[in-house]
Write a structure and sequence with these properties.
alpha+beta; 4 helices
Length: 130
Amino acid sequence: MATRAEYSTRPRERIGAILRGERRFFTAADVHRVLQSQDVHVSLSTVYRTLEHLCEKNEATVRIEQSGEAAYMHCEPVHHHHHAICRKCGRVEDVDCTAIGQFAESLRAQQGFVLDGHSMEFFGTCASCG
């Protein structure tokens, strides 16, 4: 039997569609504003719960903005990667991280430190804004 959290709801589908529609991070308030502009009436708390649910299902990724607010983006968990974020338009491009394996081995060999996780983002200007 499916739990309530596994059911697909119209708000959940709309929020997922918003995230899939653009390659940029959205705060819950951003998503809520888009929903309102589409005349979809959903509470902000429902948006937050849905975004967390999408992260738990690996259908979205979350990052903490400089303001301290969480921002979400649709992200395929196909392979481990990082993000290059345009400071002008907010567009996000995936960055393969094959060099991380070499870095982790160097860190282990030189400092005896065994890397078990990492987080990395790149900031700059995309080709469209360049």
